[in-house]
Structures are given as structure tokens and as C-alpha cells.
Amino acid sequence: MNFSLSDEQQMLADSARRFVQGGYQPEALWRQFAELGWLALPFDEDDGGLGAGLVETMVLLEELGRGGVTTPYLATVVLGGGILRRADAACRARYLPDLMAGDLQLALAVDEQERVFAPENTALQAREEGGGFVLNGRKTVVLNGDQADRILVLARTGGEPGDQRGLSLFLLDPHSPGVTLTPHRLVDGHRAARLQLDGVRLSADGLIFEKDAAFEPVRQVLDEAILALGAEAVGALSVLLDDTVEYSKTRKQFGVPIGSFQVLQHRMADMFMALEQTRSLLLAATLKTLEGHDDARQAVHALKARIGGAGRHIAQEAVQLHGGMGMTDELAVGRYFKRITAMDGLFGGADQHLAAFARG
Tens digit of pLDDT for each residue in 267-310? Predict the structure, then answer.
């Protein structure tokens, strides 16, 4: 298994790093992403995309994580776009051009109260009526839900919560009658919303995939989202480590830099080891998923659990070694700490993924 980047992948990483460090325009960020071709990165060339794969997406997300760039890329391109990549040709032709041009933002509504990262436990109902469907229920933590032009909603069209069969996916206009969105922000400032559906009527054209057959494609997309989140986490954790090491060289106590204290050197060495372990798991999980290994999902579970454990360790050490300034707005450390904290809760926490890993 080759862990080294190709020349093209390295060029992507270098250009993304220059963009992040070069002073981008926040108010035009999404349009710049479209112009750079980053919104078209994972889509097939036949659909107008660049035909890149999971590795290229991970490369880009690591640099965005390193720069602390707040965008709906995960929600729109990885989650929503991941669904559309698996849809039929007519659906792709209708929506992907606008997405890649920066004119369409998406959200994927899967999680429900106490049903996080468990699509099979979906309880939101979609009842067939009059040749269409009527949706009733609630979704929580819908990333980019308050900004999305369309929301993909996972609903139960058959079976009971816990059944993998009987799940269907619908494309919803958030301005439809009966839709209530309550915006909120995550601890790191990213946008999300709670979604309430009360008798929302959709035609049969709103159904993505075949009826009752949405579980597996949604499961695959959620795995890809964890890989993307892992790449962003590696980028953010790299900054936390680098900033902490640099600070230890300039902050003095008892007349000498604190980096000269052996006990602090050991703590920073532990941070480095935790980061490299996370990076290795990210690479392994990405390549195993890309190559279709039997244990690919196990690797994804291991990665998400590691993001929670190692991420928390590195972030807390960075704050503690910076002292009180670590949580102020004057340093980036506090902002990255909040992002890592939010990542731990997205798509299931460390304990949930450890349990899934143990079950095999």
C-alpha cells in the first residue's frame, strides 16, 4: 500500500496551502473554490467534474483544516455531493453543474435525537399518498441546513427503527410548506440547523435511489465524511503541535525557554506521536476504502475513535502548554481547540466507534 502522494496530489496540496496562507477573501470564498475547481474535484469527468478520488479530497481537506477555513465543503461536496454522485444520470445532470459552479449548496439530514450516526435507527416517516410522499418527523445537527438550497432527508418508508431495509432518501426544498429550520452554531462556529417536517408533501420525483434502498449509499457517504473530517483534523492538529513547539521556544520561565524543560519536551513528543498515529490511520482508512478492502469500515471506525482520543489529547496539551492565553481570541490555539472538540461529536463519538470496531 503506497502512502506517498503523486506529483499531481502534491501540487494540489501545495496550491491549497498557498491559497490558505495567501489571504483569501472570506466573502467570496465559495466562488473562489468553484473557480479553482475544488467543488468539481470528486465528480466524474462525464458529469463535468475533475475525476479525482478520495485521496485528492483528503489532501484538500487537510490543508483547509490547517488554515482553519470555515466552509460548507463537508456538507455540500462530501455529504450532499457524495449522494448525488451515486444518483442516476438525470439527477446528476440536473444538480451537479450548479453545485460545481458554486450556485447550489446542499445539506444531508440523517441524525435524529439520540440516534447519532445510526441511519438504521431512523424514525422520521415518509408515507406514500396520492402518488407521492408525506414526511413527518425531526432531524438534528443538519450541517449547513440553514444555508442549503436543497436538503437531502433520510426517512423511513418501511420497517421499524433498527431495520436497514425500508430507508429512502428525498431531495427537499427547504422553503416547502411544513418545513421548519431552526439555525444554530456548533461550538467551533460552523453552521447547522434543526429540521422539523410537519406534513411535507413531495412528489415521487423527489425520491433519490429506489424506495427502501437508501441505507447502503448513505452509509458509504458517511464513511467518506469521516475520512474528510479526519483529514481536516490532521491539518488542525498539525497547527496545534507546531504552534505549541514554537511557543515553547520563546516563552521563558526562570530565565530560560520553557521548551528546555525535559518534562515539557516529553509532553510535546507525545503530541507528535499522537498526531502521526492519527495521520497513519487516516491514510490507511482512505486507501482501504478506495481499494474496497474487507476491513475498510473497521479502519474508518478506528480513525474516528482516534480523532476523538488523540485530538482531545493534542488540543488539551496545546492549551495547557500555552497557559491562559491558549483560550483567548488572541491566539489561534483556542479556535482550533473548539474545532477539534466539535469534530469529536460529529458522525458519532469515540466511544460509539470503538464499540462498532469491537463488534467487527
Answer: 999 999 999 999 999 999 999 999 999 999 999 999 999 999 99
User: Strands 106-109 and 150-156: what pairing?
Assistant: parallel
CATH number for the segment(s) 107-212? 2.40.110.10
Supply the angle between the helices 215-250 and 262-291 in degrees, to the nearest 10.
Answer: 160
Spatial separation of the C-alpha atoms in residues 158 and 83, rounded to whole Å: 21
At 249-268, the pLDDT tens digits run 888 788 788 777 888 899 99
> Phi, psi at residue 61, to the nearest 5°?
-65, -35
What cell numbers appear for 98 in the block? 450548479
Which fold, 216-359?
Butyryl-CoA Dehydrogenase, subunit A; domain 3 (1.20.140)
At 99, list the grid cell. 453545485
Concatenate the DSSP letters of all residues of 191-206 into one string: EEEEEEEEEEEEEGGG
8 Å CB contact between 285 and 227: yes
pTM of the model: 0.93
CATH superfamily of 7-104: Acyl-CoA dehydrogenase/oxidase, N-terminal domain (1.10.540.10)
